[in-house]
Amino acid sequence: MNIFDEIKNKLSHEFIDIIEWLDTSNDTIVHRFERYQNEIKNNAKLIVREGQTAVFVNEGQLADVFKPGTYTLSTKNLPILTTLKGWKYGFDSPFKAEVYFVNTRLFTDEKWGTKNPFMLSDERFGLVEIRAFGTYSFRINDPGKFVVDVVGTDGNFTNYEVNEHLKSLIVTRFTDTVGEANLPIELYAANTSELSETCQDVMQPEFGRVGIELEKFYIENVSMPEELKKEIFEYSRLDKLDMTKLSQFKAAKAMEAAAKNEGGTAGAGMGMGMGFVLAQQMGNMMGHGATQQPFGGQPQQAAVTPPPMPAQVLYHYAVNGQQAGPVTFDKLKELFASRTINRDSLVWKPGMANWSALKDVEELKVFLGGSTPPPLPTV
Description:
This protein is α+β, with helices and mostly antiparallel strands and about 375 residues long. About 35% of the residues lie in helices and about 25% in strands. It has four domains: about 5-105, no CATH class; about 105-230, Tetrahydropterin Synthase, Chain A (2-Layer Sandwich); about 240-285; about 315-370. Strand 4 and strand 5 (about 60-65) form a beta hairpin. It comes from Maribacter luteus.
């Protein structure tokens, strides 16, 4: 061993009297200050910069925590370590302890998302699959708890390591929160701000248990299959539509098309089947048209046309105090069979003055079983 190796070896065994950490990375959360045999000598200087906290750990036990500032280490500012070491008359020099520097700045624009779609139950569309993603921001607000419960003995704990844990927690709590909300499926995408705030309130206690504060939580998108989107748009349009006006509009279009054809009257008759209300109106119009006479004074024989197709009756029903529908007779029967509604559920259809129990609506009694059909009409 030459003279330079001896000097290097000797220096490596000298006690370090300045303890500090200059963060040159963008992703380090906890850095353990490395020195020979973890030895610190009396009156060593500790420098803690803004955005940092220094944590002393003695043989796996949390000791003293230092906020930003410059300290000369002594029994006065190491009370917990003094107790753990049993220093009655001042501490020995040197002493052994691990020093961890914790980055307490705000970590922003962290990504989260559901790796796989998860299932939600919707009253109208049954089980549906949705995905979601967004961002969040956090900071370490209890460095001591974080070092002991999360970091352990890791000498260089990075943002990536903690994010893997946090993302799993976020997805789990997000899925639980959305499932318990039990909202119509389209409202999740339309109310991301309110949903983000609710999720943040739910997740904050979980973060706090390991010394982390969830500063911000954002849901940027809640997506669903394209087929389901189309169904929701169609359902929304029908729900907002004035069916009477729609029937009148379709009947007017049918009459216009019929007037352009030679068999105009027959065409008009076919158009009448498009709406329940217009079927009667068009029937009256056809009756009046048949009695009119042309200029020649000879009555014109009305063309023989089939009667309009019977209009399909649509029903509204109530579930858990909420109005739903309209649905067809067959769909209502399926809801009864699946026990979504029962014999006492309230139903309503056009022509009824008030809501009535299903068991009191004549044509719906067939759902209950044991009913007999009415007598055939006489010819």
